[in-house]
Amino acid sequence: MTSETQSQNLTDGFHLVIDALKLNGITTIYGVPGIPITDLGRFAQAQGMRVISFRHEQHAGHAAAIAGYLTQKPGVCLTVSAPGFLNGVTALANATTNCFPMILISGSSEREIVDLQQGDYEEMDQLAVARPHCKAAYRVLHAEDIGVGVARAIRSAVSGRPGGVYLDLPAKLLGQAMDAVAGAKSLIKVVDAAPRQIPASDAVLRALDLLKGAKRPLIILGKGAAYAQADADIRTLIEKTGIPYLPMSMAKGLLPDTHPLCASAARSSVLKEADVVMLIGARLNWLLSHGKGKTWGERGTQTFIQVDIAPTEMDSNVAIGAPIVGDIGSCVSALLAGLGREWPAPPSAWTGAIHQRKEVNLAKMASQLLSNSLPMNFHSALGALKKIVRERPDAILVNEGANTLDFARSIIDMYQPRKRLDVGTWGVMGIGMGYAIGAAIETGKPVLAVEGDSAFGFSGMEIETICRYNLPICVVVFNNNGIYRGTDTNPSGGADVATTVFVKNARYDMMMQAFGGVGVQATSPEELYRAVNTAMDSGKPTLINAVIDEKAGTESGRIGNLNPQSVVKKA
Ligand code: ADP
Ligand code: TZD
Ligand code: MG
């Protein structure tokens, strides 16, 4: 037999992994090459997959996670063993926390040596490390099991509550040969990877009864609702019932933020005053003050309805009077079917009061946005970006930072579903460039990344990746010389600068120029508006250094209350 006919009859671990992914419609891999997976990426590219190489695995992982969120297919991140794997674990854990489907595939070293701790190259028991940070973790030891391993990984990632999955591929597996026909037969094309979960009809009735009797009803839409892609039905539910709604940050745009029933501009009062609250794909975690305390009305005065695919989410923080367990698409359509023809509009005392509160708050904000003082503050700079997003509603907005995040979330209206991607459940810094790249690759839409200068630094090196793949991403760095503000001083009077302060007047725009992208400095709202418009029109990788008043921010943005207080008096 010539070596050619031999290889025609044989396949190996590398090719089976690629074939298994492709068979299941996975066409893109995000990763960083190296031993033992360099050839896996190379062969995948040769087989027509898109393989996007990053500078650091965390950002490849974030790109994969956001790909999962946007497409409902698990995003795949590929890393080398031990350190590369660990770099990917932050993204894996973040995906799990946020309920985004992703698969972290890592090469690993020799099992026999790792398990005896004999000091292999990049030795680590990766499966054990990954397990607490994901929904499921699998290792494949035999080439004929690759099909099963990939199928289980896909099902685990997307079914039920979506999340991160780890798939461990020892180096030896990748080189294992097997008969090509038997190999092809061993692969599994997953049928109905995320089966619908139909809610029980009595659960739906119970919820509708509660909702109908409410005097001050409120619907809260979370990113689970955005993920579910039941956009039209969710809109119909809100419009048919006439119930005011609050979008959580990544659910903004599920209905346009300018919708008459959107209560965002009256957030604090509706949370306090609502009597029946229906959560759709949103958890009562810290972002909603756990459903109790002074953010909400007197404890016990509110009744909650919760629509979620995870039964154990119910009662996690406060009692849920009417749980509806199922997938959001099925639950919302069951609710719609149960509404009947006549649905009583909520009392006008409630909707009217919300309307008035909104008008007052929006007018107050509008005047702040027009400020022309220099240097720019958060309001004036974001006023320019608000206009950009209004004019380009299909652009994707990525957002991280503290003040930069909190102000942008409340100031920039979103108009379409799944267009706002941010720090999510953890409030994690470092998602910026990974999410921007993943979103640009998956959707082909222009991306605007609005980044605090600190936040940007966590993934800043990936601007090289953005330039390398010539992605239509415009990064705006809100440069206020530091974390929260740039004005802190060293309390000891020593020579080191304060812990929150960066190099003054840094030129992040010049970093972009180093890689052949466009770098611009903007010092006024007009300059900022013009530079972003040019970037979005051209689609060229662009970074705009937006100079923000270093005195403008507050400690931790809007969550300063979460900082513990020392009992020792400050020096
Ligand atoms: P937010 O941060 O926007 O409030 P969370 O991440 O806290 O949203 O909540 C999302 C919720 O959505 C999770 O509890 C998750 O189980 C749920 N979820 C995700 N996808 C679906 C789906 N397809 N159907 C039902 N629930 C879903
Ligand atoms: N590390 C990680 C991974 N996540 C975090 N959230 C933090 C550290 C702590 N942190 C925040 O919560 S916000 C932030 C840090 C470091 C940066 C804030 O500074 P910024 O934004 O420049 O990005 P503003 O506009 O100056 O407030
Ligand atoms: Mg800053």
Description:
- The structure is a single chain.
- By secondary structure, this protein is α/β, with parallel strands linked by helices.
- It folds into 3 domains: 10-186, Thiamin diphosphate (ThDP)-binding fold, Pyr/PP domains (Rossmann fold, 3-Layer(aba) Sandwich), CATH 3.40.50.970; 201-355, Rossmann fold; 370-547, Thiamin diphosphate (ThDP)-binding fold, Pyr/PP domains (Rossmann fold).
- It is built from 23 helices and 19 strands.
- The protein is globular.
- The chain binds adenosine-5'-diphosphate, ligand TZD and magnesium ion.
- Ligand TZD binds next to helix 18 and helix 20.
- Magnesium ion is lined by residues 452-454, 480, 482-483.
Give the strand order, joined by hyphens, for the main sheet: 3-2-4-5-7-6
Count of DSSP strands: 19
Please summarize the sheet with the most strands: 6 strands, parallel
What's the CATH architecture of the largest domain? 3-Layer(aba) Sandwich
How would you describe the shape?
A: globular
> Quick check: average pLDDT?
96
Per the CATH scheme, the topology name of the largest domain is Rossmann fold
Using the coordinates above, name the CATH class of the largest domain.
Alpha Beta
Number of helices: 23
Proportion in helices: 40-55%
Which blocks of ≥5 consecutive residues have pLDDT under 50?
none
User: How many structural domains can be distinguished in the coordinates?
Assistant: 3
Structural class estimated from helices and strands: alpha/beta
The CATH homologous superfamily of the largest domain is termed Thiamin diphosphate (ThDP)-binding fold, Pyr/PP domains
State the end-to-end distance.
82 Å
The percent range for strand residues is: 15-25%
What Rg is obtained from the alpha carbons, in whole angstroms? 25 Å
